[in-house]
Each structure stands twice: as C-alpha cells, then as structure tokens.
Design a protein that fits this description.
Elements (H helix, E strand, L loop, with lengths): L2 H16 L1 H4 L9 E8 L10 H15 L4 E2 L2 E9 L4 H13 L5 E4 L3 H14 L2 E4 L16 E3 L4 H14 L4 E7 L2 H16 L3 E8 L7 H10 L3 E5 L3 H12 L2 H4 L1 E4 L4 H7 L1 H4 L3 E4 L7 H14 L5 H20 L4 H9 L3 E2 L4 E4 L5 E3 L1 E6 L12 E7 L1 H4 L15
Parallel strand pairs: 1-3, 1-4, 4-5, 5-6, 7-8, 7-9, 9-10
Antiparallel strand pairs: 2-3, 11-15, 12-13, 13-14, 15-16
C-alpha cells in the first residue's frame, strides 16, 4: 500500500474511533429512553374498570421495578391518552406515539375494537402491545400478532368459568343481551358454546348499541322468553345499567341475571344488595392472599378504590415488560418479545407463562358476590368458589387459529 493510502486509513480510523457515533454499534435503546404508553378509556363506559386506575398501576410498576426510574441505565418515561373507545382515535394516537414520540410499548387497550386497531398499527411499526382490558378471543386467534400479549382475561375464560357454573346449577335455557360490537359477539359465541356443550340451549338474543343507557326493550324480550338465565354479554357501565334495570322490572325474582363480565368496580357501584349471589370470573381479586392485599392497599391509597383485574393486569404487564428489557439488554422489539415469552411470570398478582399465540396463561377464579351480612369490611365482596386452572381457563393451542401456532 502506498504511503498516502496508509496515512488516509490511519486518519479515518482515528476520526471514527474518537466519534462515539462510529465507535459504538447501533444504540441498545431507541431514542435513549424506554417509553411506555397507557392508552385507555379515561372518560367513558370503561373508565372505572380501566382509566385513571390503569395509569396509576403503570406508575406503580415502574416505581417497583426501579427506584431511580431507569432500566439498563436509561430513563423510563410514561405517557397516557384517552382513546374514547373509538378505534380510529386509538389507531391515530398509536401512530403518533410510535412515529413521533418514540413510544416502545402500548398497554391496557380496553375494548376489543381499540385493541385490534392498535395491534395492527404496532405490527406495521414493529412495536409492542400488551392488552389488559380487551377480552375477545380473536386477539390471540385469527387476529394474533407476533408483537402482542393478551394479559388478563378473555372470553374463553369467562365462558368456562361463569357460564359453565350456572349451567351446572340446572339453569339450562338462556337469553343473551349483547353489546353490538366485537367483544359482545365473541362473549356470546363462546358462552353459547359452553351452554350447549353442557346440555343447555339459547332461546334468543338482543343486541344493543355500545354504549347504551336504556335496556328496557331488551329486558322485556328476555323476560317474555321465559329463559332461566338472562345473560349480559356486555361490560362496565352497560352491565351496571342492565342489572339495575333488570331489578326495576323484577326480572331477577323469576329469572337469573348473569353478568358474563363483571368487575369489582361494578359490584361497588351496584352495592351488595343488588349484586349479591351473582357469579363472575376474574383473573385477580385483591383479597386473595397476602401479596394481592399488600399491592391493593398501596393502590387504594392513590386511587381511593381497590384495583380491578384490568388495572392489576396493567401493573403486571408493565413490570414484565421492564424485566424483559432488562433481560434482553435492549428495547428492540424482537429481543424483548423473546425475553417475555421465555420467562415464567410470578409477580405476586399473576403467575404463568406466555404462549406462542401471545396468550398469558394463568389461573382464573370463579367468584360469588357476598350477601351484605357476609361482608366484614369495605371491599370485602367475594367468596372464591373455585380456582380454574390455567390450562382449563385457556383455549387449547390445538384449537388455535393463530398464524404463530405451528404444532396443531
């Protein structure tokens, strides 16, 4: 090599070696910060079961993970927004967060239409979603993505808990009042499968707009059907309104009103006099053991209400995400997802593993709402009737319609 060429190479090496841009490989953390977005319903039908409490839960997870608010030496930031239960608003916010604001993961995502819309954006942008509030089974079936985890519960678990328990009590004839969107349809379908598989039948169904306030016409049709069970395939304020109006019509005196998705926030709003004796299925109950009580007592100091399973799921998912970033040594999507799916999760609130289809498989609980005379303290609302093992509460992979599942 000529002297002039050698000199040029040495100069270049010196320049690149002294410039951190060239001296290091691609940055381990995009934007030099790990950014988490809580996209939830802050003002509408589901704000009580998710909403501000979900944001508080995410903040608690960050604080519990790191006293100085960092992971692998990088600052953790949290942002939040209200999707108003509208898929277009949610998708636009997701694009803004991913493209402009450097958000790495979006969590919570109550309501199925919102979750599916944001999951699609995340797949396009190669980012992560962790769904806590939405329930529909397609999230880990035909709509599954490699970058998503369905965290807290789904319609399969709800049906194999509540619906199965009620049918086994001999209440065979059902009438559904169903929210007219993807979640309601999925919950009705999965519950119908359980009812018919256990010798029952469906006498009819009424679909109502989402959200809704007047359920009188649907309830009168259910009453006229003579069904043993009036099943509510809705959630949040819609469920509260349905139960209250069913009581006003006296339907609960001759028929059994069964909310297929109910949260402790709903029971609190209804009161034990109205909700007593109802069965429900949850993935978390604040009074289950010492660990859930310890978390919940810290949570109520900030939120003035005990956590719902959705809010507990946000805490669990954010904590697991940060642990995965720590394990991977980067916020790179594929590396973090690999770490998430290769780690058994046991954070004191949930215990289980993430399957190939993105479902976080964990135990569920069949609960019965206590009579007022049985409740001994504030928020003491449930009798735990049964633990539904993770394998029973989760759709078998052999039935999966997810493109990620190859061992059918």
């Amino acid at each position: 090599m000529k002297l002039k060429q050698i000199t040029a190479c040495l100069v270049a090496a010196t320049m690149f070696g002294s410039n951190p841009v060239f001296a290091q490989s691609a940055p381990k953390v995009s934007g030099d910060v790990v950014k988490i977005g809580v996209l939830t319903d802050l003002s509408s039908t589901y704000s009580d079961l998710a909403g501000p409490g979900a944001v508080i839960a995410a903040k608690m997870a960050i604080a519990d993970f790191s006293k100085d608010g960092t992971v692998i030496g990088k600052k953790i930031e949290l942002v939040s927004a209200d999707h108003q239960n509208k898929a277009d608003i949610a998708a636009n916010k997701a694009r803004e967060w991913y493209d402009k604001d450097g958000v790495d993961v979006i969590v919570e995502l109550v309501s199925t239409n919102v979750a599916l819309a944001v999951m699609e954006v995340a797949e396009q942008k190669n980012k992560i979603t962790l769904v806590s509030g939405a329930a529909s089974l397609p999230i880990t079936n035909e709509k599954c993505t490699a970058n998503n985890v369905h965290w807290t519960y789904d319609t399969y678990a709800l049906s194999n808990g509540t619906a199965k328990a009620v049918v086994k009590q001999g209440k065979k004839n059902w009438y559904f009042i169903t929210a007219d969107y993807a979640f309601g349809a999925a919950l009705e379908k999965d519950s119908t499968n359980v009812v018919t598989a256990n010798g029952g039948k469906v006498l009819g169904t009424s679909k109502h707009p989402f959200p809704n306030s007047d359920f009188s016409s649907y309830l009168l049709k259910a009453q006229a059907s003579g069904a043993d069970v009036v099943a509510l395939a809705n959630a949040g304020q819609d469920t509260i309104n349905s139960v209250k109006q069913a009581s006003e019509f006296g339907i609960n005196k001759k028929q059994t009103v069964v909310p297929l998705l109910m949260f402790i926030s709903d029971v609190h709003s209804l009161g034990l006099n109205s909700a007593q004796g109802m069965y429900l299925t949850e993935g978390f109950y604040w009074d289950k053991d010492d660990k859930t009580r310890a978390f919940s007592k810290r949570f109520i100091l900030q939120h003035k209400r005990m956590p719902t399973s959705v809010q507990a799921g946000v805490y669990s998912s954010v904590l697991a995400y940060l642990n995965a970033v720590q394990k991977a040594g980067t916020d790179d999507t594929q590396a973090v997802m690999k770490a998430l799916k290769s780690t058994n999760i046991d954070d004191g609130l949930f215990k289980g593993k993430i399957r190939a289809d993105g479902k976080f498989e964990h135990d569920m609980y069949l609960l019965e709402v206590k009579k007022p005379s049985e409740s001994t303290s504030p928020w003491d609302y449930y009798n735990v009737k049964a633990v539904i093992p993770a394998a029973e509460a989760t759709q078998p992979l052999s039935l999966s319609r997810c493109k990620l599942v190859t061992n059918k």
